[in-house]
Design brief:
single chain, 342 residues, alpha+beta, Helix Hairpins, 3 domains, six-stranded antiparallel beta sheet, two-stranded antiparallel sheet, elongated, coiled coil, ARB-07466-like C-terminal domain-containing protein, ARB_07466-like_C
Length: 342
């Protein structure tokens, strides 16, 4: 059976006998030139070459997805909000962990979005390079594969090259599409994190007068030279230990720590040994301790509590806020209740 294929204006004909598997000749399209123009190639190889020729041109290289436009002032907005958060923390006389958490998450999401955007640009360059290599090698020209001057070995070599480039192009295109999806999702996440930080700051600003009254009520204390803790922290630590047994110990002062532990205004009440997640009676004791701190926070001058990857700010009274995942049980406060004081 004869099967004609039209490529670049020249008719290429190949056929074979299925019963015998005998190879026949490929016609160049010029009548009477069979002997001079023919090269031996099987129908299967010819079909493979034709599929390889199907490499798309430059217009087909761009994936269906596109990189969404993003706000050019994202980083400047993060810088502005970071300054506002720092000013609030200073005015509120201590860390505001929800703002710290939201700020860190926004920065992390922004860095990831930028990294993926750069990877998209690199993948696009690689894809263009493959297309250029295909063109310069002649791999896209079917006539060079089946031309009159070609030898069978050269044709097979060209076929292998073009097939390889086709596979590379398909693989890189898939990779680029994946990167585009991830980059767009990362940009969306970054924008959402920044919006959350902005909302949190605005919400805290509305409570500034209430917080200032609370701070004025308790005043400011320097840590004691002996214990390194403020008198308020010592009082609250002793009252907690009088109400809750602490079989796994209590850790307070942490010299050099930039947070409340380094200022003598925080203690960790351990609820499990060896950095394990608290369970059973230990977890119940942690739950009860945290609730006791919430109930007595304004009476005693507690600033905030952290327990089981959640944060409760007594100053603002906004309820529990979920914190980002920091890693293990200790970093996420599953093995201790953290208490900071004013």
């Amino acid at each position: 059976m004869i099967s004609p294929v039209q490529v670049a204006g020249s008719k290429i004909v190949f056929y074979s006998f299925a019963a015998s598997g005998r190879e026949k000749y490929v016609e160049s399209g010029r009548p009477g030139k069979w002997g001079r123009a023919a090269m031996r190639v099987s129908a299967a190889a010819a079909a493979l070459m034709l599929m390889a020729v199907g490499l798309p041109g430059a217009s087909a290289l761009a994936p269906a997805l596109v990189l969404e436009r993003h706000s050019p002032d994202r980083q400047s907005k993060i810088r502005r909000l970071t300054l506002e958060a720092a000013a609030l923390s200073k005015a509120y006389r201590g860390e505001i962990r929800t703002l710290d958490d939201a700020r860190d998450e926004a920065k992390k999401a922004d860095r990831r979005a930028d990294r993926l955007t750069r990877q998209v640009a690199g993948a696009e360059r690689e894809l263009v390079h493959i297309a250029r290599t295909s063109y310069m090698s002649g791999g896209l020209d079917a006539i060079q594969l089946f031309g009159l001057q070609g030898e069978a070995t050269q044709a097979m070599s060209n076929m292998a090259l073009v097939t390889h480039l086709a596979g590379e192009r398909a693989q890189r295109t898939t990779h680029l599409k994946t990167l585009l999806k991830e980059a767009n999702a990362a940009r969306k996440t970054a924008d959402q994190k920044i919006d959350k930080l902005e909302r949190d700051i605005a919400k805290l600003k509305t409570k500034r007068r209430d917080v200032e009254r609370l701070l004025a009520k308790f005043g400011f204390q320097e840590p004691d030279a002996g214990s390194g803790l403020t008198a308020r922290m010592v009082t609250i630590r002793n009252e907690i230990m009088a109400n809750f047994p602490m079989p796994y110990g209590v850790g307070c002062l942490r010299p050099g720590d930039p947070g409340e532990h380094g200022k003598g205004r925080a203690c960790d009440f351990m609820t499990s040994p060896g950095g394990r997640v608290s369970t059973g009676d230990d977890e119940a004791r942690g739950d009860a301790l945290a609730q006791w701190c919430i109930n007595n926070g304004r009476r005693l001058g507690i600033m905030y509590i952290i327990w089981k990857q959640r944060y409760y700010d007594i100053r603002t009274g906004g309820g529990w806020d979920t914190m980002s995942d920091r890693g293990g049980a200790t970093a996420n406060h599953y093995d201790h209740v953290h208490v900071s004081v004013l």
